[in-house]
Design a protein that fits this description.
By secondary structure, this protein is α+β, with helices and mostly antiparallel strands. It is 32% helix and 20% strand.
Length: 107
């Protein structure tokens, strides 16, 4: 089962690695793993989102311009990005792709 905290942490990590300034410092395997996560999370985007819960979020990822508030709803993890209509609706029973980072010999 996936939680809001797990999704937020992986989203934050993936966004940082895929930032073009930061990615240059990482091995290709790490960048590929983060791209797989972003493709996975993007598959759960819904333009027609349920209303955002009134409670405080269970987790938050991103910076001031790209904050995503994450909520555990019991059946799904809901992610509401700032300044966008829609949300991520990740089934709680699903799991993100495995984080497998390949390293080259000698590194």
């Amino acid at each position: 089962m996936v939680s809001a905290q797990q999704v937020a942490a992986r989203y934050e990590q993936s966004a940082a690695v895929l930032d073009h300034h930061y990615a240059a410092w990482h091995r290709w395997g790490e960048v590929a793993a983060m791209r797989a996560f972003m493709a996975w999370i993007d598959s759960f985007w819904w333009d027609d989102a349920p209303p955002e819960p009134a409670a405080l979020p269970d987790a938050v990822s991103g910076g001031q311009q790209s904050t995503i508030r994450w909520y555990d709803s019991g059946t799904a993890v809901l992610g509401y990005p700032a300044n966008l209509q829609g949300c991520y609706q990740v089934p709680a029973a699903d799991a993100p792709p495995a984080l497998v980072i390949l390293s080259s010999a000698g590194s």
